[in-house]
């Protein structure tokens, strides 16, 4: 019976690693191309003996990794610069350093995942999980304590008698002929049976659906189910574009929200004027917020000498002549937008508090440059001579 079966290849089995390496290098020299070696563990020198070329897998890894880089750069550019531009710390929309980590991660992710998938599909022929050598006595031996070499029939140089002679010349423990497996037919995969299964499945599920949902269905609370209302993301025929969610009419301002026209603008053409008077109450608020949000970097008195000194890019003193000449609106603009490495504080400090801080900065300015009259005023108010 075995004579009728198709031969897959001729195998030789060895007991010593040295023998298989010698055999492999001779088979390679003979010019065979469809052959392989099976050993229970990796053998040093086998790649050279088999004259294997470096794997082409690396090109797939490189290609997919670079595609990942390009893809994520395009995505971040599109989302943050075109689709949904967000001002973050007054930086330009596409600020590359922020995207380096995600770029690196996506590059590595695509490179590795595609390497595994390419290896499985191109090299291991996934989804086929079968190989002629599986479950043969040969495979059992080479996964235990033997070293095997197989020359396949599909090799253009294959001639059974010559191959056997060549293998025998290596003085192997045994020579085996490996046959293709007989194809096993399962009646369960007969098209007729599968069609029958599909029809039964459709009939049962369809019948159940119709019985439960149509024949036996009683609408519960249908006065609540069918209301005249629009829910988010729903469709409504009332409007031409049929969208339930409406975009606000152009120029609409949300209640309680005052828009700031100079977001992400470096130097606005004009600055807003301070709506707060420097009352005791406002200054108290400004001092509190300055000490909470500004002093960690700028120092308690704005000298640029905070406890973060040298751990963060040092902020400038707020007492230079240049900054003393800033308009109130310019301070407001910097707190709102941030400035270079200084982040925006809109999320932490509301509009009123920002103006209060500006007033408090003016107090610091005056305190650092007090005139004789200022000193007299303080002595009169507090009864102490602060100069001492
Ligand atoms: C995280 C640290 C940090 C905090 C907190 C911070 N700043 Fe700054 N600030 C900086 C740095 C750094 C600079 C210098 C930026 C640059 O490179 O121009 C700066 C610059 C400034 C400048 C001067 C800009 C110029 O043109 O020279 C002003 C004014 C200023 N900050 C005000 C404030 C106010 C008001 C607050 C509180 C709401 C505040 N900063 C909070 C770090 C900070």
In words, what does this structure look like?
This protein has 388 residues and is an alpha+beta fold. It has 2 domains: 183 residues, no CATH class; 103 residues, Cytochrome Bc1 Complex, Chain D, domain 2, CATH 1.10.760. It is built from 13 helices and 4 strands. A 4-stranded antiparallel beta sheet has the order 2-3-1-4. Helix 3 packs antiparallel against helix 4 and helix 11 packs across helix 12. It is elongated. The model has no long low-confidence stretch (mean pLDDT 90). The site of heme C has 21 residues, from helix 9 and helix 11.
Question: What keyword list fits this structure?
Answer:
4 strands; elongated; 2 domains; binds heme C; alpha+beta
Summarize the structure.
This protein is an alpha+beta fold and 388 residues long. It has helices at residues 17-30, 46-50, 57-83, 96-123, 137-142, 160-169, 191-215, 222-225, 280-298, 321-324, 328-337, 351-368, 372-382; strands spanning 7-14, 35-38, 147-152, 174-179.
């Amino acid at each position: 019976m075995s004579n009728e079966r198709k031969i897959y290849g001729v195998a030789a089995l060895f007991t010593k690693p040295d023998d298989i390496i010698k055999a492999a290098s001779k088979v390679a020299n003979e010019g065979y191309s469809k052959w392989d070696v099976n050993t229970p563990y990796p053998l040093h020198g086998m790649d050279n003996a088999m004259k294997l070329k470096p794997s082409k897998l690396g090109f797939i890894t490189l290609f997919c990794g670079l595609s990942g880089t390009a893809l994520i750069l395009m995505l971040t550019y599109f989302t943050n610069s075109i689709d949904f531009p967000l001002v973050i710390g007054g930086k330009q929309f596409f600020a590359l350093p922020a995207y380096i980590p995600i770029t690196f991660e996506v590059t590595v992710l695509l490179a590795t995942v595609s390497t595994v998938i390419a290896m499985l599909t191109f090299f291991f022929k996934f989804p086929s999980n079968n190989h002629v050598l599986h479950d043969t006595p040969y495979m059992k031996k080479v996964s235990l304590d033997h070293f095997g070499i197989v020359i396949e029939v599909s090799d253009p140089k294959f001639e059974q008698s010559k191959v056997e002679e060549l293998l025998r010349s290596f003085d192997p423990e045994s020579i085996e002929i490996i046959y293709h497996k007989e194809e096993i037919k399962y009646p369960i995969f007969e098209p007729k049976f599968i069609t029958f299964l599909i029809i039964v499945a459709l009939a049962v599920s369809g019948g159940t659906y119709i019985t439960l949902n149509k024949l036996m269905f009683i609408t519960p609370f249908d006065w609540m189910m069918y209301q005249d209302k629009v829910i988010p993301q729903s469709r409504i025929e009332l409007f031409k574009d049929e969208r339930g969610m409406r975009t606000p009419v152009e120029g609409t301002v949300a209640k309680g929200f005052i828009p700031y026209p100079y977001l992400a603008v470096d130097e606005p053409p004009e600055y807003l004027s301070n709506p707060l008077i420097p009352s005791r109450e406002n200054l108290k608020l400004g001092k509190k917020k300055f000490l909470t949000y500004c002093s960690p970097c700028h120092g308690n008195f704005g000298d640029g000498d905070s406890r973060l000194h040298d751990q963060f890019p040092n902020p400038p003193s707020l007492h230079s002549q240049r900054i003393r000449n800033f308009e109130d609106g310019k301070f407001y603009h910097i707190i709102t937008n941030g400035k270079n490495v200084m982040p925006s504080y809109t999320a932490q400090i509301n509009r009123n508090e920002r103006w209060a801080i500006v007033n408090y900065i003016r107090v610091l300015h005056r305190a650092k440059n007090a005139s004789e009259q200022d000193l007299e005023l303080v002595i009169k108010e507090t009864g102490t001579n602060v100069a001492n």
